[in-house]
What does this fold into?
Amino acid sequence: MTNSLLARFAENIFWLARYMERAENLARIIDIAETHARDEAGGQDWKAVLEMNSDVKRFTEMHGEIAPGNVIYFYLLNRDNPNSIVSSVTYARENARSLRHLISTEMWSHLNVFQTWLTGLRRRDVTAKKLAGICGRIKQECQAHTGITEGTLYQDQGACFYWIGKSVERLDQATRLIDIGYRQSLLLGPDRDKDSHWNALLRFASGYQAYRRTHRVNMRPAEVVRFLAFDGNFPRSLLTSVETAQRHVRRLEDGFGIESGREALGILDEIRSRFLETDIQAVLDTDLHGYLDEIQRRLQDCTVALGKRCFGHLE
Amino acid sequence: MGKIVRRLDKLNVKTLRKRAQAAERELFNLGITFTVYSDANAIDRILPFDVVPRILSKKDWETIDSGVRQRVAAINLFLHDVYHDQKILKDGVVPKDLVLGNANYCKRMAGVDLPGGTYVHICGTDIVRGTDGRFKVLEDNARTPSGVSYVIENRHLMLRTFPDLMDKIGIRRVSDYGLRLHQALAQVAPVGVDEGDAQVVLLSPGVFNSAYFEHVFLAREMGVPLVEGRDLIVQDDQVFMKTTGGVERVHVIYRRIDDAFLDPKAFRKDSMLGVPGIFAAYAKGNVTLANAVGTGIADDKAVYAYMPRIIRYYLDEDAILENVETHICREPEGLAYTLQNLSKLVVKPVGESGGYGVLIGPRSNAASLEKRHKELLANPKNYIAQPMVNLSVCPTLTPSGLDPRHVDLRPFAVTGRSTWVLPGGLTRVALTKGSLIVNSSQGGGTKDTWVLDK
It folds into this structure.
């Protein structure tokens, strides 16, 4: 018996992972943005969240004024917004539905129940008072999904595509977060505000406690960015994510004789080398946005290469 | 049997309801559902499940099992014959025009040889029990019979929700269906392909098909890829699937797509679900399709009437399972009888399935009888008529407690080189009081079916 994987399923499982990761990141961001909006030094900035996701234009067309309630609705429950959490989880479930015979029953059943709960939420369920609880639950469900996957998904090439998708999405989300976070910090005045800003940014990425443990009292921008981007022990850093992706693309060939990932691997290798060569202070002094933009472009190329070579997209 | 009744007796209706609710919630959470599309929304519905099992004795089952195997053997011989020498037509046992003039007769299949001579690899035989206790065949489903996933999932559900009821009863297992099916399909791989090397796939119309859950279930239970038409290509009259590592040969396809949509080059040109060129590969013997193309001629409601004679013709045996007495309206005497006794008969269109277009005479008003009378005169060939069969009943959990409801039974027979019948089958139950229609599209539900091993 062969254990080959249909190109369409490879793509389905890649996107299943991406959508779930996207939902988790968004829940994280909404949660922290809302919490810090009520912090004395925080200064609510929903516009930054919209910018982070390049959604300002679409949002204003749909909702007009950037009011907290609207942004929350837009990102949590608006099914017309393809980037909303409910949309992401629904797409994830649709992909999982195609994959039901390949993924574990537990994965499917959990996602099915989660999506049913999410689509049952209404505007009144996501008011400021209830928001932290809802975002917490979404985050937990996404994490439960990851845990169930890790514990039950058969580790064949399908699983490789899952982890590739997950790491690519993490890379994508982390570059956005760093980009917008740094840009916002430049607009702030006194140092105290800046500290609180970096503090929030680290929390967005679930990196606050690890950062505190490994760094001295001062929040130095270059240190925070270096941590989020290049700390090899931080599970959500750019470096960790690219290395995870590399490992699983390599496993396609080493473990299953699938050579079609080579082009994508070339791109990931190149991204990682660039990370290792980067002098972060020099980048901050010149053009961080341009630097991150280039990473995003290469990630795009990587997804396109996977599409052409592994998912059977036409050239 | 007595043990089961005593145990059931101890569970009061409230407990049964509570467990039934838990069971239905589990079905929903596991996504054992079919999807109903309305406007912009897709709604997942479960097939109603009744927790009171239907029980078949060992002796009952022996009759059904041997009767179904006999019938499947005759059907396969009949199909091979009508697509080759047509002896049965030449001998006048079945009217020539009934077969050759039938919309389900597929000319392209003439002369095509199939591994093992097997046409109907998966057969669902709908069986009812009359008030006299005898089992009778209501119809054969020799195209793409569905429902087997519910048989197995219902059992799993019962094992989880009623362990106390089932303990040490001795119920024949159903869980090896996937393995048996995979083995049978591998046995009929194209000539030259070793059974152990046969790449089997399940071809589904996709996630929007209402039976998609069953396709997933079968692919999972067999451990084979679940493909759609767009995943397959035909090169040099061989079928391949598109994988991450390039294209890979496919030998056996369990297809859940109707003949008409299978190949836009051979059949309906507008089919987006099929695989262009697959029929040519099939006709050359390079791929096995299960079920074969053109099996619709065997489960045609008009051919059904001849089934006892078909069995005798090929096997020289009497039918173990009787037919329901059938009047063929294409024949003058059948039509005359039907018109005279319309209010006592069940009149079915021959081309329909799913219980659509069925007129139940004794329960119809004058207007519908009159309408069918006209339809019969206008197009007699389209109908057969049968007496009302008083379907047997089973105790069923209803809003007013345990009540009798009508049931039927669809055992599933799997045929590679030989035939195996899954012990039990799908028991469908008409949940509406007095209703005889058990189809899921019209308010039917299902029950777990227990075949006792002693």
Remarks:
- The longest helix of chain A spans residues 7-37.
- The interface with chain B takes residues 1-2, 4-10, 94, 97-98, 100-102, 105, 108-109, 112-113, 157, 161, 252, 256-260, 310-312 of chain A (CB under 8 Å).
- The radius of gyration of chain A is 20 Å.
